[in-house]
């Protein structure tokens, strides 16, 4: 089925690329969504089976695949609205946008399910190509700059991952076979040469941080989310970040079963703390709301990796946090399009009094703010609290204190901007040009934020079991 | 013979550090391609012939012919002035490249590994870090792309080290090379040449944190 899924998405993608007719394009994209949902149902029914030798429907893959499918549906709906309402729409730009969207979603889904590190690498490269097409949608000078930075830094990072794979094969040199699948490596973990494995971990981790949005390669992602159209930025900051996480996590499971566990956790912890620090600094500074949301994603990824580095309950909390963050951040980016429709500007000084112009949208922004800053009624409060608990149980009290301080700074910076946007009128704002936006546009965001709250506060037993199975191989 | 070729490859990195003109860079990349062709020919004895012929064709045709020709076309089309103005003086670059090579040699001596020929490791890592330094110390976008191609050559040398046991990895590396180079060079360098009249990285600073 996975081969049918991949060939089907590829054909649909190329069909959308080359065809310029509106009706056929929209039919094809809804066909792709149906294919995606059918594939997800199939994957859930065939839990823990391996297909085509390189793809396994394991627990982590299923969680991420379900998240991707749930986010893909509003992404297509909002892309539809966005393309229809943009002024410079041409059939060519529409075809490129939807074709790249199909390619991105299918490549990310395949990367979640791959059980061989080289296959994950191939699909990560494909996401670079499709994401850069999406970022370049407006085809102006700033979009070109953002796309160039994204492509270049992603190319270097993917090369780093490849070098890591080469070092991994060097460390596996005395192994019984030349099969680099995760299961095979794990069963031979005692045979791995540790010095090569150290180098392999460093390179693979650095390479995947461009997709995950962590220090050192996070800069490409920030520019990309700034310049990409709203729904594309939503996908970039939710499912692509989950893909970076899956890439690092599966390799971390291997390293955690060798004597390198403590060293690897130290490396991840340093990178995570630095990301949190950088996010705090920049969130106080930036006045562009899209960039602020991008730095907030980096802050959350720093928290997720701190959970991984701390261990214990932190593993569970990290996976829970990244799933909830995907839902909440994508809903914020979907709402951003409506903010831009009302104000035609991204700078916080030009936005204001949003409650008056779009009440439903403003409630979404308020709820998303409560979720992103992890305040109690939201689901992310649970996962962040568990991450703090894991840091406390790992005896990292000073680190925990500094992290809490940084998060307080971030909450202050974010709250300052969000409350200005919601309540305080903007200067020199011409109210006559404000369009009346239908409240039905915000329905998907309410569903996503509500779903995040439900999954965090009262998770279904299946969800908890799936997360527990995916962290089973880590040492406890 | 293999070691002589790899050492000549390393010397070409020093030349890269002090060269000034764009055409020297392009000729250097072509020369590195030819060196890699001979290294691949001498090293990969145990993989099957079809695979070997593919790898050899890729080094000669892609690295030594197609990419330099395309780079020359871009240089002519955008009338790029032949000098690249670096941020640091060339002498300092040479010292830094020497430091990189020496550090890599010291690093490789800490790995007690009789399995891998140390020369590959030294050459590959030196090329990688020299390529990264090259990107960081130059101004023009096209020299950034050339630095990326140097990194790719380093990755190829490293993949040759494991190529006899796992030829799939060498193929993957070539695929990366072609894919990334076509994407970066073909699509975006053209577009950037169209939009930005002067291909200078200082132009790409509009996307700021304002």
Which terms summarize this structure?
heterodimer; A: mainly alpha; 2 domains; two-stranded antiparallel sheet; B: mainly alpha; 7 helices; 76% helix
Protein model, in words:
The complex is a heterodimer of chains A (about 475) and B (about 210). Chain A folds into 2 domains: about 1-260, no CATH class; about 260-475, no CATH class. Helix content of chain A is about 75%, strand content about 0%. Chain A has helices at about 1-20, 20-45, 60-85, 90-115, 115-135, 140-170, 180-185, 195-210, 220-225, 230-235, 240-255, 260-285, 290-310, 315-345, 355, 360-370, 380-395, 395-425, 445-455, 460-470, and strands at about 50, 55. A two-stranded antiparallel sheet of chain A has the order 1-2. In chain A, a hairpin with a 3-residue loop joins β1 and β2. The mean pLDDT of chain A is about 90. Chain B has one domain. Chain B is globular. Classes of the chains: A mainly alpha (about 475), B mainly alpha (about 210). The interface between A and B is large, with 43 and 39 residues.
Topology:
The complex is a heterodimer of chains A (476) and B (210).
Chain A: H1 2-18, H2 22-45, E1 50-51, E2 55-56, H3 59-85, H4 91-113, H5 117-135, H6 141-171, H7 182-187, H8 194-212, H9 219-227, H10 230-236, H11 239-256, H12 261-285, H13 289-310, H14 313-343, H15 354-357, H16 359-372, H17 380-393, H18 397-423, H19 443-457, H20 461-470
Antiparallel strand pairs in A: 1-2
Helix pairs in contact in A: 1-2, 1-4, 2-3, 2-4, 3-4, 3-10, 3-11, 3-14, 3-20, 4-5, 4-11, 5-6, 5-11, 6-8, 6-9, 8-11, 9-10, 9-13, 10-14, 12-13, 12-18, 13-14, 13-17, 13-18, 14-16, 14-17, 14-19, 16-18, 16-19, 17-19
Chain B: H1 2-18, H2 22-43, H3 49-77, H4 90-110, H5 118-137, H6 141-161, H7 167-195
Helix pairs in contact in B: 1-2, 1-4, 1-5, 2-3, 2-6, 3-7, 4-5, 5-6, 6-7
